[in-house]
Amino acid sequence: MQDPTNERAHRRQTELSLILGGYAIVAFVGGGILWLIFGPDVALIGLAVVAGGLALLGLLWLFLRWLERWERSG
């Protein structure tokens, strides 16, 4: 017999892993390409831009989580 699973927690964990993995791929591959073509200074700027985008998406995610909890409590 299978153990019961928490599908919401599994979905949340999977989404977080996919988002962070996608950003890691963009940061490392994109940063590596920038490093090879333009040098380390431009690669660091590119990583800063990716980090800023991740921060904005994180804020959006937190806002949506807050809305979801607010809707459930009301």
What composes the largest sheet?
none
Form type: elongated
Query: Structural class of the helices, strands and pairings?
Result: mainly alpha
**DSSP strand count:** 0
Order of helices and strands: HH
Distance between the termini: 38 Å
Tally the helices: what do you get?
A: 2
Mean model confidence by pLDDT: 88
Structure description:
- It is a single chain.
- Helix 1 (7-38) runs antiparallel to helix 2.
- By secondary structure, the protein is an all-alpha fold.
- It has helices at residues 7-38, 40-73.
- The termini are far apart.
Spell out the key features of this protein.
elongated; about 0% strand; about 70 residues; about 90% helix; mainly alpha
Task: Walk me through the topology.
Elements: H1 7-38, H2 40-73
Helix pairs in contact: 1-2
Brief write-up:
The chain is mostly helical.
